[in-house]
Amino acid sequence: MKKLIAGIALLQAAWALPALATDYTIGAAFPMSGANAEYGEVFSSAANMAVDHINADKKLSGKLSIVYEDSQALPAQGVIAANKLVNVSKVPFVLSAFTGVSKAIAPIGTRTKTVMVNGGGVGPDLAALGEYFWNTIPLADFEVRAIVPYLVKERGLKKIALIYVDDPLGQSILAELGKELKAVGGELVGSFSIPTTMQQFSGIAARVRDTKPDAVYFATYGNQQVQLVKQLRDNGISQPLVSYSAVGLPSMLTLPEAKGLIYTSQKMNWDNSDPQAQRLMNDYKQKYGKEPSAYVLNYYNAVLTFADLAAALEKAGKPVTGENLLAQRKATKTFQFVGAKVSFADNGTVQSPIQINDVVGDGTTKAIAEVK
Amino acid sequence: MLFVQLLVNGLQTGALYALIAAGFSLIFGMTRIFHAAHGATFTIAGFIFYECYSVLHWVWPLAVIASALAASIFGILLDRWVYAVIQRHEGSFFTVFAASFGAAIVVQNLISIVFGRGLVTVSTPLSKSLEVAPGLFIAPIAGVIIACAIISFVVLQWLLTRTNLGIALRALGENPALIEVYGLTPRRLSQYVFLIGSILAVPSAILTAATSGLNPAMGNHVMLISVAATIVGGVGSLRGAALAGLLLGLAENLCLSVIDPQWSEAVTFVILFLFILFRPSGVFGRAIVS
Hints:
The structure holds 2 protein chains of 2 kinds.
Chain A: H1 2-20, E1 24-30, H2 37-56, E2 64-70, H3 75-88, E3 93-96, H4 99-112, E4 115-118, E5 133-135, H5 140-154, E6 159-165, H6 168-183, E7 187-194, H7 202-210, E8 215-219, H8 222-234, E9 241-243, H9 250-253, E10 262-266, H10 275-288, H11 294-316, H12 322-331, E11 335-337, E12 340-342, E13 354-359, E14 365-371
Parallel strand pairs in A: 1-2, 1-3, 3-4, 4-5, 6-7, 6-8, 8-9, 9-10
Antiparallel strand pairs in A: 10-13, 11-12, 13-14
Helix pairs in contact in A: 2-10, 2-11, 3-4, 5-6, 11-12
Chain B: H1 2-31, H2 38-55, H3 60-88, H4 93-115, E1 130-133, E2 136-138, H5 140-162, H6 164-174, H7 186-211, H8 219-233, H9 238-254, H10 264-278
Antiparallel strand pairs in B: 1-2
Helix pairs in contact in B: 1-5, 1-7, 1-8, 1-9, 2-3, 2-4, 2-7, 2-8, 3-4, 3-7, 5-6, 5-7, 6-7, 8-9, 8-10, 9-10
């Protein structure tokens, strides 16, 4: 009888074990196929590295894993991906990317009380998608506000032509660029909207040349932006090319025609004294053979934010739900991101200094200015 | 000068579109197989050339041969192992289409795995424009594209009209059942069509790699151009495909002088729509009776 009781007690203990160590799954709706799949590759490499580090450090009582769904960088596909993550995989936390996709899936987050975190899209509208939608990337209005005074006052590039993709991101950059140029005595000499599927840009180059700009700002992304830069240079555009953080893709940074391109991103601090930054830098280089970009930093930090919040909830004995994650974020004043201590603004967006980069042409970039 | 520049750009784009459409038009016209994987053939040809020329640093003629070999092997194997099997079991047109579409997706993913998902380009001084007159920029590669298009269509026209193989292939497009009476095998001829059609994708793939770059998902755009040019030119007419490709390229560029670039691609669809409405058989095609 004693043995039977002991056996039952052992069984109970064994069954109870998983309740003590809860495994967590978070989701990600990234473009894993199509013309913007390169972004999905970069974003997921960062999220996977963060998961590896969190599990290695045993930050949570159980194991953290991540489920990916393919958004193809398209709003309709993004909604399907987010619905699957929320309703089938039942994740409390979803990583999002691209302005159009993020705007499409944000209502799902609000309705189901699921936290959605964007580290790639930069449309200014993303700051107003409700309290369940957070951004770990500074938005495009900050990037445009940072670079316009630099171009006009420090580089003397007053006449700017804009080529922008006709979507929420492009439209917001058009509005912001026009406003900012006017404010500092510059001029938007031409704006050319292009469809996301366009691949031939020799005609656009001719139209842009006709406006005689001092510099050309382009607001597109993925393979299209690489095609655009190559064809602008091949078709006689010798003026400086300027853009925003979407430029930080390996295929763009290694393109010979992209040499000298100027673009903004949030400040990346790879300070030797920060062990977290050094760990990410070294492990990422070892695993992927290249330096981590701003996107890597954003998604690594986004997953880290989940781990910090979930660990705090575990400590308080609360379940890790979207609602509790939001409450915990509001209660947490600062987060130790890689490279900096940051706080979320009331609209759920992380604010960070902007740096202006120059594409060296060998796959690397050089910071040439910083704007606080 | 803007108009002249756009005209030159239109000729370059149009010649490239004509080359892109030629292979698909030939295959569809002769075999009535909607070869949705023609875009995949194009992508394979482009990436093999990129690998051999830009990564392995082979001399360009060798890289072209490797690219042509890869494209033709893919086309022939797809015809032999997929289309022939479906047709043997009397699969419908849509079954063949679905299989072809599936093959295109598989190829797109395989290329993503092998070459990555980003854009790759072949660097050549031929793609750099020179200012030949004030405000008029022309790249030497424009001449190469136009020359390639002319040579390809002249050779193809000669093959189809002056050789026994060409006559047999045209007969295949006209009446596949009747050619068996003459001791010819439609299946064997179909293989020749896929061989020629796949090789036709090679020059356009290589020139695209040098002018605008390659990405694994670009097959969709290739198919869009191919289908539009085939419908506008007339099913089964290579002259039609060439003319339609040129027309679409010119329209896409010349419209930039009057409308916003946002709508330039829509011009292609407007032309397509007008042809479907008012001349469904295309420029040189004949009415198809089912």
